[in-house]
Amino acid sequence: MSYLLRSRVTSTRLVTPIIKRACFSTTARQFQQQQQQQQKVDEESKVTHFGFRNVPEEEKESLVRQVFANVAGNYDVMNDAMSLGIHRIWKDQFIRSMAPGPGTKLLDVAGGTGDIALRFLDYCRNIHQDSTASVTMVDINPHMLEEGKKRFTKTPYANTNQASFFVQNAENLEEIPDESMDVYTIAFGIRNCTHVDRVVKEAYRVLKPGGRFMCLEFSQVDNPIISKFYDIYSFDVIPVLGQVIAQDRDSYQYLVESIRKFPPQEKFAQMIRDAGFSTVGKGYEDLTFGVAAIHSGFKI
């Protein structure tokens, strides 16, 4: 009898660890599955900003596309109204800072209605008497690009090989070969992109060694007095102008909000360096108290 009892006890002791190991193994698998499911949920629920709203990353591109489809026809008129014409001075300074030479190949991203592209070609023609410089204009929005094409038909560059147009995403310039451009510009467009860091890295890819990245964008005003008046004008006046001139308050409300969500000058300059570019000095030039800034980096 005692022998049987000992046998049962021994048998129980042998089986119990196996049961525990089996339970632990099942629990580990369940935990791993839960982690994988949670990771999948996190990836699917990635959000970004659209103005002051948080939206799923995959939705921002279509939302931005709709904004610029709405404003394309009145874009140039609204730029003059919103900035009191100062945007023209900024863009002239942008091209002077670039100082392109004869034969320069420019990639103008988010080229819109062609302000930068035309200034670039005019500079090369007027300063160097050059007709070999060329610009490739890309924009994610076909409505904006169409406005640019229309504008070019009224210039000396119509029906020449100096200008070409592509609908492209700044984060994936699939039509632009590696190391094929001398200068990359993006003016008042990068803040509308979902992943700003990817845009800058893509710029690095398409530029030749020695090429230059240049960005003109709204920035941060540090002077507290000027900043206060700037905020009042931005939020109380610009959306009203959008409603009166373009019958579209919401799109211009978004544009104002998107400016406030863009990184300040120092942070964006560091993003440019992180992408591989070298900068001179602090890497940017403030315009009109920092309302806008010109950022620049070289692919060394």
Model description:
The protein has 300 residues and is of the alpha/beta class. The chain contains 10 helices and 9 strands. The radius of gyration is 28 Å and the shape is globular. The termini are far apart. Residues 1-28 have low confidence and may be disordered.
Number of beta-strand segments: 9
Roughly how much helix do the residues carry, as a percent range?
A: 40-55%
**If strands are numbered along the chain, what order do they take across the biggest sheet?**
5-4-3-6-7-9-8
Order of helices and strands: HEEHHHEHEHEEHEHHHEE
β content, as a range?
15-25%
- Spans of at least 5 consecutive residues whose pLDDT stays below 50 are 1-28
The major β-sheet equals:
7 strands, mixed
- In DSSP terms (H or I, runs of 4 or more residues), the helix count works out at 10
Secondary structure class reads alpha/beta
Radius of gyration: 28 Å
Give a nutshell description of this structure.
54% of the residues lie in helices and 18% in strands.
Keywords:
single chain; 300 residues; alpha/beta; seven-stranded mixed β-sheet; two-stranded antiparallel sheet; 10 helices; globular; disordered N terminus
Chart the SSEs and their pairings.
Blueprint: H1 2-44, E1 47-50, E2 53-56, H2 57-71, H3 75-83, H4 86-98, E3 105-109, H5 115-128, E4 134-139, H6 142-152, E5 163-167, E6 181-187, H7 196-206, E7 207-218, H8 224-246, H9 249-261, H10 265-274, E8 284-287, E9 292-298
Parallel strand pairs: 3-4, 3-6, 4-5, 6-7
Antiparallel strand pairs: 1-2, 7-9, 8-9
